[in-house]
Specification:
Structural class: alpha+beta
Helix content: 40-55%
Distance between the termini: 55 Å
Shape: globular
Number of helices: 7
Number of strands: 5
Strand content: 15-25%
Radius of gyration: 25 Å
Length: 199
């Protein structure tokens, strides 16, 4: 009878221990929580960003962050994809700094970077699409040249992550009163695609 009681007590102890180990969360998570990972990406990108630009979350997709670079910063010639010297200097300073961030501490959390060109509503659709594509491609090429010169160790990584896309006048910007804002509509946007958590 005593041996049955001992066996019963041992089974009870094993069952209680097993249920506690299932309920106790592991001390170290294998993958960061989505919110924590997103905040780390946000913080690192924000620190590397020049003061004249802003980092925004995409309201329709939490896996996308955006950096809008206005035409006043890049200084494209009107109706052309030629960068003015001030725009070229900006890309020479900005792109290597951001490439180091994308391809350094954030490499495992970035799925891709789309450089989008946007125009205002002047001109035909076909012309605006072509112009926005040429401008986005110019930013990509000039950025890659600056990265290759300044931080060649991340050139291949950035080349693998980045692509260029022309949006034309598809995503115009409006002011609070609902009026078209041509100045803010003319821009290049870095669309940063975050890798889903745990991937």
């Amino acid at each position: 009878m005593t041996s049955l009681a001992v066996i019963f007590i041992l089974l009870l102890v094993v069952t209680v221990s097993a249920s506690r180990s299932i309920e106790t969360p592991p001390r170290l998570a294998r993958h960061p929580q989505p919110e924590a990972a997103s905040e780390r990406v946000w913080s690192a990108l924000r620190q590397a960003l020049p003061s004249e630009l802003s980092l925004e979350r995409d309201v329709s997709n939490p896996g996308i962050l955006r950096v809008a670079i206005p035409d006043s910063v890049l200084n494209f010639e009107f109706g052309k994809s030629t960068l003015a010297p001030a725009g070229d200097r900006f890309l020479t300073e900005f792109m290597p700094r951001y490439a180091l961030t994308f391809c350094g501490v954030l490499r495992d959390q970035i799925a891709g970077i789309v450089i989008e060109g946007h125009t205002d509503d002047l001109g035909r659709d076909a012309l605006n699409l072509k112009l926005s594509q040429e401008r986005s491609f110019q930013v990509l090429v000039r950025g890659l040249e600056a990265i290759a010169t300044t931080v060649p160790t991340v050139h291949a990584c950035f080349l693998q992550l980045a692509s260029a896309s022309g949006r034309g006048k598809q995503d115009l910007v409006y002011d609070e009163a609902g009026h078209l804002d041509p100045q803010r509509s003319r821009r290049v946007v870095l669309k940063i695609l975050l890798r889903p958590a745990g991937v």
